[in-house]
Amino acid sequence: MASTSMHPKDGSHIAEKMRRHLRPSESIIGSILFFCAIVSIFTTIGIVITLGAESFRLFSKEQCVEVTYLSTGKRCEEVTLNEFLTTTEWVPQSLKFGALPLIASTLTTSFIAMTIAIPLGIGAAIYLSEYASPRTRRVLKPILEVLAGIPTVVYGFFALTFVTPVLRDVFTVTAMPTLFNMLSAGLVMGIMILPLMASMSEDALNAVPRSLREGSFGLGANKLETTVSVVLPAALSGVIAAMIISVSRAVGETMIVAIAAGAGPRYTIVPFDAAETITGHIARISSGDISFNSVDYNSVFALGLMLFIVTLFLNIIGRQLATIFREEYD
Q: Alpha-carbon distance 174 to 150, whole Å?
């Protein structure tokens, strides 16, 4: 029997012909989608320009504060990037712009959150994807979605009024946490991020072809061996992407740390101590009456730009790791 095959050029010719004969409605839909993409791009560019321009004021000219013991009534100093990133005192009204206390507390709460979200999220994803029956999955998935929909301010008060008292009872003898502490904020942040981590990891596991599981079973492996040695490595790119996005979510969280972690920059990484994160500081300062081009105004934008750069860097790393570990199947 004779077989026929289509030349690649024929396929491209057909695709070009189909594009030429698009219906008007399809052209309109394509234009709308293109407009949405352009809006998102220009929104990101606008955010970068705004943060960069306002942050540049902090480093490009002297910052001045009102003082009473000088005849001029003002004290002015220049702020350097080295001072901003390496010193440990953050008191803008005294012209001290060391962001390390805010950075340290942000990293501490994010680390605590990820120690909760990553293992529990991957475990929940494996259970839902590989072990749970359809009926169990139908019950558990909505519960995870409900957790994802709870306002973060509710999580914040949950950390302050429930988790912190429990921690104070547990660590009464060794190291009793203060009323405001990074440990309770980090633990609740991990609970908040858990649905995101579990959902994205489950999608990655479900994307692994069924043939890989069947081949592993055919070689005599049980379900646990198949999950750990075959399915999880094959879904590694998606799991890594979920981890990076979860870290970005933890770094940018505001209300939980603003309510439960404490106010006032403090250079410490002890989870039992109270300390203010970058987002918590921005929320506290921005809630007051800040005058344009003041010291507080310029410093808040500089912190916001630093947060943006950190999350952008994390997303770039996530994309690179996902590309490296991506598996392709026919």
A: 33
The region that residue 9 occupies, defined by phi over 0 for left and psi between -120 and 50 for alpha, beta otherwise, is alpha
- For the chain, give every domain's residue range: 8-60, 100-325
Residue 320, SS3 per DSSP: helix
pTM for the model stands at: 0.82
Are 183 and 112 within 8 A, CB to CB? Answer: yes
Digit-coded pLDDT (tens) for 240-289: 888 988 998 899 888 999 999 888 888 988 888 889 999 998 888 887 67
Q: Using an 8 Å Cβ cutoff, are 206 and 234 in contact?
A: no
Q: Is the pLDDT of residue 63 over 90?
A: no
167-170 — which CB contacts under 8 Å span 24+ positions?
none
**Of all residues in the chain, what percent are helix, strand and coil, respectively (each to 5)?**
70, 5, 25
Q: Which helix (H) or strand (E) holds 155?
A: helix 152-158
Tell me, letter by letter, the H, E, C secondary structure of 156-202. HHHHHHHHHHHHHHHCCCCCCCCCCCHHHHHHHHHHHHHHHHHHHHH
Q: Is CATH 1.10.3720.10 the right assignment for the domain spanning 100-325? A: yes
